[in-house]
Amino acid sequence: MALTTASAAVCVAGVGGLVVLSQSRRLKSWVFAKLWLLRGEQRCHQALASAKTALFRQQPLRGRVLDVGTGAGLQLDNLVRSPDLDHLVCVEPNPFFTHKLKDSVSRAHILRKELGLSPVCIEIFPGTVEEYLEAGAGGAAASFDNVTCLLVLCSIPDPQAVLGLLYERCLRPGGHLYFLEHVAAPKGTFQRILQVAVQPVWDLVGDGCHLCRETGHTIQCCGAWGKCDIRPVVPDHFLPVPFLVGWAQKPGS
Fold first, then answer.
1. Is residue 3 predicted with pLDDT exceeding 60?
2. What number does CATH give the domain 20-248?
3. From what superkingdom does this record's organism come (predicted)?
4. C-alpha 7: how far from chain center
5. CA-based radius of gyration for the chain
């Protein structure tokens, strides 16, 4: 997700422009949305298509689903194919993805119809997970059958805290957390050296994205999971950073 778009950072040329960019949260969000839609979204979607298909085939979505950081919504093509999906909540804080996300929701409804599946309620919440919970928009506590985190935990300021909220306040007993994330390469490798070197520049345009997070470990530590399956991704074509994919199940039924 990150390095596939980092090369486009030259679009914000000029020392003065970079200084302004480093100080403006909203401007960073705008720049990241533009770069992601221009360079990263389709490339990552295509490279990770097999991993996403296998993930949701292994443990199909059902019932109420919370998708964290939906972005422009390209992943909806995967999420809405489940016959047992009833209600999908898309939480996305970047306002510059909203227009594209609404288009993706419309296409998702069409896809459900083409597949002969029953209509599904798809809701967009323009904010963070914390804001969603504070607004009481989620209804009853721990009412989601599934939570999905696809290319988002890299940019959440405190992923361990948010994952804790997802575990405690969103997932019902027996529910599943699904994830597909880019992660830190092993220490001492060329990939890791490159990630560390690129991070200061990426901080200017990455909208909070961190290249060197140990996301697999964070997921394992955020809750008392009954079952957990985490594995590396073999992408369909080259991506410059490593990825992991998997699911974790909350105990109970």
1. no
2. 3.40.50.150
3. Eukaryota
4. 21
5. 18
Domain segments of the chain: what residues? 20-248
State pLDDT tens for residues 86-124: 999 999 999 999 999 999 999 999 999 999 999 999 999
Going by C-alpha positions, the residue among 162, 155, 164 that lies closest to residue 225 is 164
73 in Cβ contact with 104 (< 8 Å)? yes
On whether the CB atoms of residues 36 and 11 are closer than 8 A, the answer is no
Q: Write down how long the chain is.
A: 253
How far apart are the C-alpha atoms of 187 and 214, rounded to whole Å?
11
CB distance 128 to 107 below 8 Å: no
Residue reference for tokens 């939480």: 91
**Strand ranges of the sheet holding 121-125, from the earlier edge strand across to the other edge:** 121-125, 85-91, 63-68, 144-150, 171-182, 243-249, 227-232
pLDDT one-digit tens code per residue, 114-152 = 999 999 999 999 999 999 999 986 666 789 999 999 999
As a whole number of angstroms, the distance between CA 115 and CA 46 comes to 21
